[in-house]
Amino acid sequence: MAELTNIKSPRVKAARRLTKRAFRDRDRAFLAEGPQAVREALALKDVTVELFTTVEAETRHADIVAAAVAAGVPVHRASGEVMSELTQTVTPQGLLAVCRFVHVPAAEAVPRGARLVAILAHVRDPGNAGTVLRTADAAGADSVVFTDASVDPYNAKCVRASAGSLFHLPVVTGIPVADAVRHAKEAGLRVLAADGAGTRTLDEVALDVPTAWLFGNEAWGLPPELLALADEVVRVPIYGRAESLNLATAAAVCLYASARAQRQTLHSVEDPTTPTL
Amino acid sequence: MAELTNIKSPRVKAARRLTKRAFRDRDRAFLAEGPQAVREALALKDVTVELFTTVEAETRHADIVAAAVAAGVPVHRASGEVMSELTQTVTPQGLLAVCRFVHVPAAEAVPRGARLVAILAHVRDPGNAGTVLRTADAAGADSVVFTDASVDPYNAKCVRASAGSLFHLPVVTGIPVADAVRHAKEAGLRVLAADGAGTRTLDEVALDVPTAWLFGNEAWGLPPELLALADEVVRVPIYGRAESLNLATAAAVCLYASARAQRQTLHSVEDPTTPTL
């Protein structure tokens, strides 16, 4: 296999342009870097378009390269310089896949029977968004919605922070928050906005029901018009002296509180007459 | 007030060297950047040694500068170049305090009556460590222990990620993990190691008792010899397909699960005879 060494070759340029959102949207493709992401991409049918690998990675991750070959995915050996050009990371991991978009149509934002959904309303930092996606996956969420005011789920930092979760569960992108909330309500989910403005805390609301969590911006949370869309605004209780939690942490606490409540038999302290299921 | 414009002036150089751990340890001082951290530092007695401020920040945060002056803290006006030299951030916030160390002696690692303690065993990323500190504060933890194999709590990135929490609760630094665990056990706390190796999950252990959580390295968790120190190894349940959670997220789920259990009346699914209070 000849090694790609010219960063100006058409193949490298075609992949390189996927570091920009406009070109991702035009080509309906994105870049997934590192063994974990590439392995997850290859586990899905017809997602991986081509694979770039350095000589070192080809040896270290021979199983992944073999899986690509077996799936009929073209594998290109690339020089370190070419890989640096494509990955934009300080220490490239030597494996990079060009992948087709994996998100599902807006109509599938809330899958049938869904009990836990995360809606990202104004999450702007790709690392935070990817972390929320990973956490939602871990918490067993049925889908994650990146609304039109949130970061692109195919941003390289988001893909990296999601640690493969982008390939695990239905992801929707680019729909208005109001549409996401409507889908959730129509599917019978209770929509809870996580925000410091909440009058009740996580400890005071019923979490064992199908729930869609709405998460806002890292710095300023959710604006009033979005808070108004939710069935209730709930805040994570601050038991100590911190002013707030960071977004990914707050989302983790909310998503896991719901996931655990849905799986445990809890008695409500406010309403001792609630029957135990 | 004359503006400091020379990055080689003795005052600037004396502060600048605090970006290095060896000098922080020698001077027993560190740098706290931004209005939130500076405000919290000034709220403590005898912590702030001096304050650097740009002209813009002096106007925008006049209340903070006034508080410094009222507390007898020397305020130095600094040029943008000097501030950049001191803060190492892409967008300096224009306020930077030189602070005395705030950690407490090892013997106070677990305060009398403590019910929730976080022990960082091998946390190496300062951003993660600071986020865990902030989360522990929010969850009402009684102290946070940075053991000798963990990052320096006075690292600028850690201070920034802690969002002021470094100044909120007792922090211990530089003690061996075994000592931290011994202090916790002697104080009657149950020591739970958070690790994927746990046989029981967070849903299966009693969390309403005084607990010290032991958190390991971002990539490889806790080594066997540290797992062996704990009363029990507990894993955060993964309900979906993610391989794991990131460290700060896992810590948030564990700390909040304990904090909420200690405050709520929960029925144990294993023991339906537990009376409701």
TrEMBL record, chains A, B:
BP-aspect Gene Ontology terms: methylation; RNA processing
Keywords: Methyltransferase, Transferase
The keyword Transferase appears for this protein: yes
Pfam families documented for this protein: MRM3-like_sub_bind, SpoU_methylase
Record SMART domains: SpoU_sub_bind (SM00967)
GO cellular component labels: cytoplasm
Presence of the UniProt keyword Methyltransferase in the record: yes
GO molecular function (one): RNA binding
RNA 2-O ribose methyltransferase substrate binding domain residues: 31-105
Protein family: Belongs to the class IV-like SAM-binding methyltransferase superfamily. RNA methyltransferase TrmH family.
Name the record gives this protein: RNA methyltransferase
Protein's organism: Microbispora bryophytorum
